[in-house]
Amino acid sequence: MEAGAGLRELVGTVTDGLAAMRRLQDVLWQAGGAELGKLFGTLDAIKREAEASQVAVLVEAIDRGETKSAATGGSHHGWITHWGQSYVAQGTSRLLRVADAVRTGQVVAFTDAVKSARVGVLNADLVRKEMARLEHRLKPEAVPTVWAGYLTLGETCGRREILGLRQGLLAEHGAEGSCRPTTMRRRSSGACRSRSGRRDIRVPPRARRRGQVRAGSRARPAVRTTSGRRS
Question: Helix axis angle, 108-115 relative to 92-104, nearest 10°?
Fold first, then answer.
């Protein structure tokens, strides 16, 4: 009963807060300039906490088999879009991937970062993908350190910085022969910038097949002859 009463009380508080937020726009004119910034920050914190709570609710629903109900389409995706209209447009698969990683609990630091709302779902999914690419190329003893580094970056940085960390991590923590002499697809800024600082420029395969781009020369435009053929 105590657990049930606690749940009802918390849900009631959240519902009351939602109603208050719906009335907030009508009274914003009363706020001073400094108050607007603080309010924006508070709303951002609420959004992050709400996202973390959604992950927790989804994990609970999957564990109980609720997401396989025929009433919501009999699938995880169907359950999410039935109850969360904002996911109809996008984000369902990403939310599921993060929730699945939290469910397995294989990486405690990852689970804690998501559940505590320190790392949002978008960055959490990106970090998870990067570690899936890198983990087998790292020294085993360095894996926890690299996880911690990525999660710390995930708290305050964006996609560019997270993706830009890969080659530096391989250079410092990679197993023998794992750091290939290639440049990164993206270049990050600040402390996450690659050591070479170069951007990898690739010629699309289709362009190479058609002869549109040639190494060391400019593409020569085709000229039609009087016979109608292209020279």
Answer: 130
